[in-house]
Amino acid sequence: MNVLVTGATGFVGRRLVPALLDAGHEVCVLVRDRSSYDLDLDVDIYEGDLLEQGSFESALAGVDAAYYLVHSMGSSGDFEERDRQAARHFRAAASAAGVGRVIYLGGLGPSEEKEGVSAHLRSRQEVGRLLGDGTYDLTTLRAAVIVGEGSASFELIDQLTGRLPVMLAPKWVRTRCQPIAIDDVIAYLVGVLDAPETAGTTFEIGGPEVMTYQEMLQRTAEIAGRSVYIIPVPVLTPTLSSHWLTFVTDVPTSVAKPLIAGLKTPVVVENDRIREFVDIEPTSFETAVRRAFSSESSPSSPPVEATG
Fold first, then answer.
1. How far apart are CA 118 and CA 82, in angstroms?
2. Residue 289 lies in a domain
3. Which of 61, 76, 148, 238 could crosslink 261 through cysteines, CB 3.0-4.6 Å?
4. Where is the NAD(P)-binding domain positioned along the sequence (predicted)?
5. H-type helices in 176-284, by residue range?
6. How many domains does the chain have?
7. Is there a domain that residue 38 lies in?
8. Residues 186, 190, 196, 200: is their CA dihedral positive or negative?
9. Rounded to two decimals, what is the model's pTM?
């Protein structure tokens, strides 16, 4: 197929493009700055911004399927409104271009209408709903924490365990989560494209293990040969926690705050029927962490990006 990848310079996009090429697809990418795409791959590069109508539509000409991997968290201003505008602009352009399929990577968790849903997850769910109103068939994959070098969530875990042997953490670190290896995410993203039965459907994807965030921190520390002691306390609000994180990690407050707010919500796969259409051998959490540390799952060293 002729495939367009938006967000091609991000954590997921940089890995997805070579995987699509390996699967035999013709690929073009949409980036905001052509000079930022430094991978030496046989792809057509289009420059444009989904927030600016008229700047990106040419990238959709002749495209059979498009991947939507755009997320504004960490940008200045209201990231929810930016995500909303980008999704609407893309939906209109993809529909007008006659794109047959769109594949979107969203967030795992309850619907945006439920009380207490974080701004991060609410935005991910809203983008999926907006994209679903296009004339194409939308396939949505919903994931929780993605483990890999360059994942904002994993960078937080890695840096915290590396810099704080004793950690006061919000009581929400005991919330359950189902992390997934970046290699598995890529396998699912490529796999659904070759499975027409997945068109127009939403799937939940996760790794083989369910654990609390506290367990993720402790197991990551153990794999890295570190020692960490975590004390959950009730006084650390999401705002206080995010400001505290800026002192001990390199992840900016604009990214840390919505991620921390999301700790309150369990993110566990409730329906794994995607396995009926895309059969992969799930990567264990330990293997995913070791690959992240050794960069085995990365074609290069991408910047930290808030995706999953």
1. 16
2. no
3. 238
4. 7-118
5. 182-193, 213-223, 238-248, 253-261
6. 1
7. yes
8. positive
9. 0.89
